[in-house]
Amino acid sequence: MSNKKVLVTGGSGFIGGNFVQYMVDKYPEYDIYNLDLLTYAGDLTKHSSIESKENYHFIKVDIVDREAVNSLFEKENFDFVVHFAAESHVDRSITDPEVFVRTNVLGTQVLLDASKQIDIDKFVHVSTDEVYGELDFDPTNFFTEDTPLQPNSPYSASKASSDLLVRSYHETYGLPVNITRCSNNYGPYHFPEKLIPLTISRVLNDEKVPVYGDGKNIRDWLHVLDHCAAIDLVMHEGGNGEVYNVGGHNERTNLEVVKTIISALGKSEDLIEFVKDRLGHDKRYAIDPTKLEQLGWKPTYTFETGIAQTIQWYLDNKEWWERIISGDYQNYFEKQYNV
After folding, report:
1. Homologous superfamily of 5-186+223-249+287-302+328-336 in CATH?
2. Average pLDDT score over residue span 44-53
3. Engineered SS bond to 85: which of 10, 115, 195, 265, CB 3.0-4.6 Å?
């Protein structure tokens, strides 16, 4: 019996990269294919510890390149596709929405079409709670899988569009799919433009930490390794066509997160710098993960244990994030693969 083949798109990004490592280590009998275009947020250096393993494979392809994607699917005949590849930075979507539509919508359609042509076990589409819009500050209100989609940024609108495409391919063509919608992730290898790694790196360098508006926007924080375990479960056990919300039960204001990091690193809150609020900045996200918990998943990290582990990881891996900030990581592919 041949090994199961798992294609992970965007496997050099933050969540996809952690998932690739998780799968390579947990399932040595599976062949894990990391497909990534290596745009600015794609970092191969994080996989230096697994790139020599026999069950890890890297492929540099643009998911919008229909010919290349179709050729790859025909050659490898994947059993699973786990689709992370996406432009995901909200600020960037506000200044340049077109690239988000290209990658997140058209790229997803290309992958769906290629998956439709082979006998695939499951197409798992990894989405975001931002497609639901925003919640008020009532702590009893949560996003469920039945919450209407009301995206408020070009990024979340592009993700909602891709979610609907995935659903339509299940309803129209019978493609076996799941959609997961997660809350804010954090943990190792988080790209330094995002709130938690940005705060850690700035505080360690005694630089100002920008906080949007009054800092009272609330997010539900999910450790990336808990998210990986959730996707693994959905991939193998998820009901065909079902949507699953993945949340951490860890709501914090942005200001609370920043202050927690500053305190843990023994620095002064004078480093906090309030800046002009983001356009269309959603007030609150909070997920009800009951449906996924009924499938058998529970988060293992509290925010307290998770943020402590994350801060320690950044202290122990300063060379990694300094290489990201300097841009040196972008030369790794050419050097390692002799391109």
Report:
1. NAD(P)-binding Rossmann-like Domain (3.40.50.720)
2. 92
3. 10
